[in-house]
Amino acid sequence: MARQAKNYICQSCGFVASKWSGQCEGCGAWNTFSEELSSATPPRGTQARSTKGQKIPLSHLSANDQDPPRHPTGMAELDRVLGGGLVAGSAILIGGDPGIGKSTLLLQAAAKLAQSGKSVIYISGEEALAQLRLRAARLGLSDAPVLLGSETNTADILKTAEAEGHVDLVVIDSIQTMWSPALDAAPGTVSQIRITGQDLIHFAKKSNTALILVGHVTKEGQIAGPRVLEHMVDTVIYFEGDLGDQFRLLRSVKNRFGPAHEIGVFEMRGSGLEEVTNPSALFLEAHDEGVAGTAVFAGIEGTRPVLVEVQALAAPSSLATPRRAVVGWDQNRLSMILAVLEARCGVSFSGRDVFLNIAGGLKISEPAADLAVAAALLSSLSGKPTPKASVFFGEISLSASVRPVTRTDIRLREAEKLGFQHAYAAISSKKSEADKITSSSIQISAIDSLDSLIRLGHFFEGDYE
Q1: Is 44 a member of any domain?
Q2: Could you tell me the sign of the dihedral formed by the alpha carbons of 178, 181, 185, 190, in that order?
Q3: Residues 6+ away with beta carbon under 8 Å from 455
Q4: For residue 201, pLDDT beyond 80
Q5: What is the distance of C-alpha 419 from the center of its chain?
Q6: No. of H helices and E strands in the chain?
Q7: Do 183 and 239 lie in a common domain?
Q8: Higher pLDDT, 39 or 313
Q9: 3-state DSSP call for residue 296?
Q10: 77: domain CATH number?
Q11: Are residues 293 and 257 in the same domain?
Q12: Residues 128, 29 share a domain
């Protein structure tokens, strides 16, 4: 009997080695190798067989296909992130920190979908059925016709789903606990995640069933393990938020059936997750216009305009190397803006600790926030508050010029709806963009460089050195 070949696979990056090593050559991580069967070795009980292959049908790009059917979940914020609802036959991966509310969100969505007449199966590999029923009772969902199961063997799960006939939604909580009897490896390893994910996704495509997989995340907030599973699924969603805060953000980073980087906002309460229909009002709820170091940024998350407060503090430091702390934004971008202010505008932050925070727990990656960050920093340094009822948006270049950003009209409409009267932004020279913003009643101050922002006498006054 031939011996089965074994490889050592890094559980952090997926690097494959023929022998064990303390440090991975691929990512440099220590003690991450796990001994697994080679992917070239056929599973036990099967024999490798060759085939000549078959011809597959080909079609033209001009084929008139219908849009895939969608199942609205009954939760508007979740449907927004998904692009309009669950697509039949799609595979969705959702990740988030432990205790953030992933299971609560999915149980609520499964219950609403089942109450609308759809067939739903919820499989948990981490909780017993009694625990699921207790959560459902706390959420007031005990009467929902959701079929529950507690199992980790994917062969048994697939057999059960096939025996139920057509199923509209299958929820797997979580993929790291699943294992396949065809592979001799521990649950959660790269090989098990790959083969169990393939089996579940193949079932979803074949049976036209929507599939939701829950994934664990690392301490950096990324879905655990190599991104092999993220490439296999159609949609990747992160559930974000501070465990000490009641607000939760649902963000899509990949979506084959809708816009990526869309967000949904929820509030965690004793009765479960409740949708927040106006997140801008939520993020600006405690905004204090009379305090120096704050500026309101008019941003875009996916297709939704969001207004959020940027808070900055430049405090004198006794350290040889002043601190630079950022929450909710890119620290490298903050360093760039500080360097531009000093090199191009003569505004020095040396000898000062700089702290930057995006209020409400929102994480911003849009370059359009540069101008709001610069305004908050200058306001904190000068001790003068930014103008009342004003918003800021614009991208700052290394030459200190401010570049116009897209969808200016949408940003202005959202600011106008919330009572803002003034906007500081770079205006595009394109006639099409200028025509879109003429209907806005907000007064716009065109900012083409950081110098022009500083030169506004009513804006910032004082010695910056």
Answers
A1: no
A2: negative
A3: none
A4: yes
A5: 29
A6: 12, 23
A7: yes
A8: 313
A9: strand
A10: 3.40.50.300
A11: no
A12: no
Tell me the DSSP string of 228-289: HHHHHSSEEEEEE--TTSSEEEEEEEEETTS-TT-EEEEEEETTEEEE-S-HHHHHTTT--T
**What span, in angstroms and rounded, lies between the C-alpha atoms of 341 and 402?**
12
Q: Are residues 262 and 323 in the same domain?
A: no
Contact 109, 119 (CB under 8 A): no
**What domain range is 29 assigned to?**
6-37
The whole-angstrom distance between residue 342's C-alpha and the CA centroid of its chain comes to: 33
Q: 27: which 2 tokens? A: 């990512």
How far is the C-alpha of 169 from the C-alpha of 122, rounded, in Å? 8
Task: Please provide the average confidence, as pLDDT, over all residues in the chain.
Answer: 86
Taking the C-alpha atoms of residue 170 and residue 210, their distance in angstroms, rounded to an integer, is 6
- Asked if residue 330 and residue 257 are part of one domain, the reply reads no
DSSP state letters, 45-107: T---------PPP---TT--PPPPPEE--S-HHHHHHHTSSEETT-EEEEEE-TTSSHHHHHH
**411 in the same domain as 303:** yes
Structurally, the chain folds into a number of domains equal to 3
Question: Helix or strand or coil: residue 14?
Answer: coil
Provide CB contacts within 8 A for 223, sequence distance 6+. Answer: 93, 95, 215, 216, 217, 229, 230, 236
- pLDDT for 46 beyond 50: no
Give a yes or no: residue 56 inside a domain. no
pLDDT of residue 242: 76
Kindly calculate the radius of gyration of the chain based on its CA atoms and give it in whole angstroms: 26
Q: Do residue 25 and residue 136 come from a single domain?
A: no
pLDDT of residue 25: 83
More confident residue, 316 or 11: 316
CB 192 within 8 A of CB 180: yes
Domain-located, residue 55: no
CATH number of the domain encompassing residue 382: 3.30.230.10
